[in-house]
Amino acid sequence: MGQLTALDAGITALHCHTGGRVPFDQVPIAGQLGAVVEKVEALGFDEDRFVTWILERIPSDPPNYETIVRLNEMGVLPPLDPTMLEAGANRCAI
What is the pLDDT of residues 43-59, one digit of tens each? Predict the structure, then answer.
C-alpha cells in the first residue's frame, strides 16, 4: 500500500468500484488519488490486515449459483430477464 500512497495525490484515479449502485451516465468514476486514499480506510492497512479485511467481506453464493455456473459452462444465453439469474456475490476485486 505504501507504493500507492507515495504517488502524487493529484493523480486522477479511475477506481471503478463503489459501495453502491451508480447510474450509467457515461461519466467515468474518478477522483484525485489523495482524496481516494483519505476516503478508503483499507489503503492504510498493512498486507495482513488488508487480506483479512477483504476476506471478511466476501458475500455468500446466491441460491442459484450452481445454475449460473452450469449455464456459463454450457455457453447458454441467460433468459430474457437477466434478474432471474441474480449474480449475487461480486468477487471481481478479490
Answer: 878 889 989 998 888 87
Backbone angles phi, psi at 67, to 5 degrees: -65, -45
Alpha carbons 20 and 34: distance in angstroms, whole number = 21
Q: pTM score, two decimals?
A: 0.48
Instruction: Give the HSE-up count for residue 69: Cα atoms under 13 Å, Cβ half-sphere.
Output: 7
Q: 64, 81 in Cβ contact below 8 A?
A: no
In 10 A of CB 66, how many CB atoms?
Answer: 10
- Interior/surface letters 24-57, b for 16+ CB within 10 angstroms, e for the rest: eeeeeeeeebeebbeeeeeeeeeeeeeeeeeeee
C-alpha dihedral sign at 28, 32, 33, 38: negative
As a whole number of Å, the CA-based R_g of the chain is 17
